[in-house]
Amino acid sequence: MSQMTRAHRSGRRTRWAAAAACTALGAGTVRARRRLAALPALDPAPQDSGPDPAPPLGWRLLTAPGVTADPATLHAAVAHAVREGLQVLDLIPARLDAESALGLLRLLDPAAHRTDRCAPGHGAGRALLVTDEVLGRAGLAAGEPPRSPADLLRLVRTLKEYAPDATGWALAPGLTAPPPGPGEHAEELRARGLPPALLSAARLAGLALLVKCCVSAPRWGTAAAALYWLQPVAVLTPGRGLRPAGLARDTAARPLRSLTTALRTLATPAAEPPEPVDGADRRAAYTGELAAGTERFLEPRRTDCPWCSAPDLTVRVRMPDLLQGKPGRFTLEECRRCGHVFQNPRLTPEGLDFYYRDFYEGLGGEGAALVLGRMSGTYRDRAALLRPFTTPRAWLDVGTAAGHFCNAARTVWPDTRFDGLDMGEGVHEAARRGWITTAYQGQFPDLADRLAGRYDTVSMHHYLEHTRDPFAELDAAVKVLAPGGHLLIELPDPESRTGRLLGPYWLPWFQPQHQHLMPVGNLKQALAARGFTVLAEQHGAAHQGNGDFLAAVALLANRLAPDPRAPWATVPDTPARRAARRTVQAAVVPCYAAAFALDALGTVAARATDGGNAYRLLARKALG
């Protein structure tokens, strides 16, 4: 009886899985058809000139090897770009193979990405039409021609940043391209910023699930398998713009092709990141600094609270550097009187320089940009908080990093001048991209007198917690704001229940970078003491839904198997240690699925209860 019960439950679970697969495949098909319909198609008029024409003055056509554009296509592409106000136009061959087309439509939403200034740049990797002006600002005017589709995929990701609202896509019937080579799939996934091994493993798991469903739940399983098998025809039927060569043949062979592609990709050796040009010097510099120990980077421990001066302190959490894995241990203490949480002992300025190095720039710059570029909705919500109270004209974003917030906020306030201030070089890159108008590099309190009264809005998003003296930063904001100006602040909430649950693996502790985490009541008192009136307070709406539990899994994996290739690594870089790191990262993959579900539930709960892991305040400076 128990065996029959178990078999019944197993069959029921399989039917649910098959039904879920049907739903996901159906939704994916509808989404792909909608996205394909949003792709404009060039309508080339016949031209008399020969093949491979030169583009008009001010434009450059960049193509992958073997890709050609006839004169009519080039003429139509330039006309379309000028008409639509585009500076970057990704040209998609109408005969693009079916799997490449479906892969592109999974990533690219032409309508949304055209207006989302922070959306990543995706393309077909075959041809790009670009203005000389954008290439010049990106420092690529004299760059080498693309050597592969992967080069073009990397290029469109970069150029989208320099033309955030002037990048578009179009189907080009007159563009011819060779079929992809058998070994190009892994390289193209990496160029898109995607993990080939993980995606290939997921594809194999999906195929195995379809087989199991067909055996254990034939009705639903057959429906799911049919949806998967026929998806290329369902999306790319003639008359919808794309007309892949051999569509019927590729559709019939889809399961076998998917299986062989996934196996071939898994068998492709993982490409080791190239050694930076200054890699040896960087490693030598870290080795020299670490030889003197990390204790010298810490000031003497203080015995009272830096916020209220009370001597009643307790340890909140102790942890190593889980972010980069640099040596050192750090303690966050909490004041029992006011609840202020602070790093104790605190890092010296030299220590901050050591632990910030290669995080937002240098070795860690690409990863940081990837995370910051996925928060468009959060950026727009921050900017929209001012709508009931004011229309900003001159906005200074303090701690702007590479200017992602300012870039996105322009969609909310298109007539506002956004300037940025930060310690890093990225603030100048933000100005070159056009994300901010003026870049200020330095400490905010040091620049406050120079900027006195210039701005009607100042924002500090996840900035105050990084500073050594939050009171000095608030005083600087008072100076810089004109009378009646608005100050927008967002911070991690040290009163978050998730912070207590996850302990050292709660990402907002962010050691050793975060120096101070203040409860909302403390910050409101500090603002009132400086003549500010709080106009709006958000908790649930400010919740960072990008993953408390996902981040905890990643931090744990990084702690269990730190990167031995890091120039600050204290263990030898051996093949065995690299293999151990890959093994740990693969082993925690199932944990990410559970963490994703927990984060989704946490976000719903935060919105419903007005709680969460962060809070947001909007305050107005007194008129007098």
TrEMBL record:
A Pfam family the protein falls into: Methyltransf_23
Gene3D superfamilies: Vaccinia Virus protein VP39
InterPro entries: SAM-dependent_MTases_sf
CDD domains, per database record: AdoMet_MTases
Name of the featured protein: Class I SAM-dependent methyltransferase
Organism lineage: Bacteria, Bacillati, Actinomycetota, Actinomycetes, Kitasatosporales
